[in-house]
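Structure representation:
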Amino acid sequence: MTEKQRIVFAGTPEFARIILAELRQGPEAVVGVFTQPDRPAGRGRALQASPVKLEALAAGIPVFQPESCKTGEALELLRSLAPDLLIVVAYGQILPQAILALPTRGAINVHASLLPAWRGAAPIARAIAAGDKESGVAIMQMEAGLDSGPVLWEERVPIAP
C-alpha cells in the first residue's frame, strides 16, 4: 500500500475554498492550510476569517496565517508539515523560491484565467471588463514571479453576455 501524499494548501477567498473542499474528498492528505490573516470587515469592522480558514477549521486541518511568507518562521512552519506538494489558489502573497522549493513534488497554482492573460489578482473581473469572449482555469507549475511558470493544464469556458 502506498503512503498518502502530504498536501499543504494556500488560499484565501471562496474560489479557493471550493478547491480545498474538493481536495478533502480525494485520497491525499491535506496536512495544513496557509491563508491570509483575519481582516476587519463590515460596518462594525469586526475581524473576519477567510472562507479557506473556515473550511479548514471545520475539517480539523491546522491553519497558519503568517503576515508574510518571506520570513524564516513561515519557511519553518511549512518545513514542519513535510509537504509532498504545495497547492496555491488565490492566496494573496507572492511566495519566495525557498517556499516553492520545499515540497518534494513541487508547487502548483490554480489560477482563474487562461495564462498568460490576466496574471495576478481579480482575473475573472478583469477578463469580463476587457470584453473577453472566453476565460477559464489554468494549473501551472510555480516558480518565482507572478503567475509565470509553465502551464500544465487548462480548461476553457465561454464568457456569456
Observations:
- The CA atoms of residues 70 and 92 lie 13 Å apart.
- The chain has two domains: 6-110, 112-137+152-161.
